Every structure is written in C-alpha cells, then in structure tokens.
Amino acid sequence: MKAALFGASGKIGRRALALLRDRGIEVRALIHRSPLPEELSVGVETVTGSVTDPKAVDAVVEGADIVLQMATTKEDPATFFDVSIKGTFHLLESCRRHRPRQFLLLGGDAAMGIWFYPHPEPIAESDPKVAYPGYYAFSKVIEETMTEQYRQQYGLGTTILRSSWVFENDDLLNHFSLLQNVNPAEKGHGFGEPSEETLELVRQGREHLPILLDRNGAPLKRHIVHIDDVIHALDRMIDNPAAINEDF
Fold it and tell me: CA 92 → CA 27, 111, 115, 153, 154, distances in Å?
C-alpha cells in the first residue's frame, strides 16, 4: 500500500508519517521549506515543491492508495488562500484523476466556530459550519466544502477528521500568552479579531494573560486534544472502509 502525505514536516504530519511507516505503508511526501528529520526520512520518497504547484501535487498523488492532506497555513493573508484553499483544490483535482481509495483531510473545529458561537452539547459532525472571524477558520470551511463536493460530484472516497486545537508537551502554555497569539499585522487569529486596545498592547510588547470571550462577552470554553489522540484517530481511519465518506 502507498500513501501520499502533504504537510509531512508539520507537528501532526511528522507523527502521521511515523504511523504510516509503523504500519508498513510506503510513503511519498511533498517537502516544501522544512526538511524531514533524519530519523523520519529513511525509506520515505520525497518530492520537493509546494501544494500551490499542480504538477508537484500530481507527482506525489500518482499511484497512491491513500492521500492525506495536512498542509495548511494559519492567519497569513498573503498565503492562506494559495496554500490552504488552492492547495486543497489541487489535491482534490489530482485525486479525481488518479482515484486513490481514500482522501483524508485533516480539518479543524475552527470550521464550527467552536469557541466563538453557542453550540449544543455534544456537537455533532452534521452541525452547520459557522467559522469564527479570521482567515484560518474561513479556510477550514472551504476545505471541507470542497472535499464534500468532490465526494458528491465525482464519487471520491473521502474522510474528514475535524480536530480540536492540538497540543503536545508544554505547548499548551503558549495559549496563555497574548504576545504568542496576536500579531497586529494579521486580521483574525485563534483569538478571533482582537480589539484595538489589545493590538496596542502587543505593539508595545506588553505581555498579558488573555481571557477569551465569546460573542456575548462571556468567558468561553476552549476545546483541546493531545496529539497522541489525533494519531490514534488517524490510525483507526486510514484505509478503513467504515471511515470512507464519513466525517469525524
């Protein structure tokens, strides 16, 4: 079995690559700026390029049984459209031509406006997508919508894993830092759209403990998930007929 992996150099992508190798699956990965760690690169076929290049994408997808899309960008207005939206489109188009058994999209609960809008408990996969303000959440909605349409229009076997905010080790602590999370040059963030007062604090380099509020000004609950649990979920979904054409 062969897998095409996009976003292999990222936090989740590196762990997904290790999972695929442990399962004896041949891996071809697209490498953009960040090379793979030496311990992960052994036995992995790599293609240098970008998801913005359809030819590079096609070179990775061709011949794959499973395609995993984990390449994304956060709140960079200069790159989010080309990388997250057009990049996913290029992958779906390549899958439409090459017909892998499964296209697996790593989505995000940002598409649900998970912490910004009120939701029933528990949230269901079929609940409507209502992104909170910002480029990242917007891109997650578009990625999922495109994937669903390729499932419906072209019969592509797809699986969407809608993950919460993924943490490992002590990176959860960064969430309690204003300066780690807000950039005045960018519209929208994991914190939504900060007030001008908040942006001025960041411009001055003044650290504060951010207290996140929902659209009504009430303190909110933030959903998180450990990377081990994400990888466990991926392990259950990859090449599993019961996961084809399902969202989780």
Answer: 18, 19, 29, 12, 10
DSSP three-state, residue 227: helix
Q: Is there a cis peptide before residue 35, judged by omega within 30 degrees of 0?
A: no
What is the spatial distance between Cα 23 and Cα 126, in angstroms, rounded to a whole number? 31
Claim: this prediction has a pTM higher than 0.90 = no
Rounded CA-CA distance 39/36 in Å is 8
| Alpha helices (runs of H) in 10-69, residue ranges in sequence order | 11-22, 38-41, 54-61
Structural domains in the chain, CATH included, are 2-167+222-247 (3.40.50.720)
Q: What is the pLDDT of residues 133-154, one digit of tens each?
A: 888 899 999 999 999 999 999 9
Instruction: Give the Cα separation of 151 and 173 in Å (integer).
Output: 38
Does residue 235 register a pLDDT over 90? yes
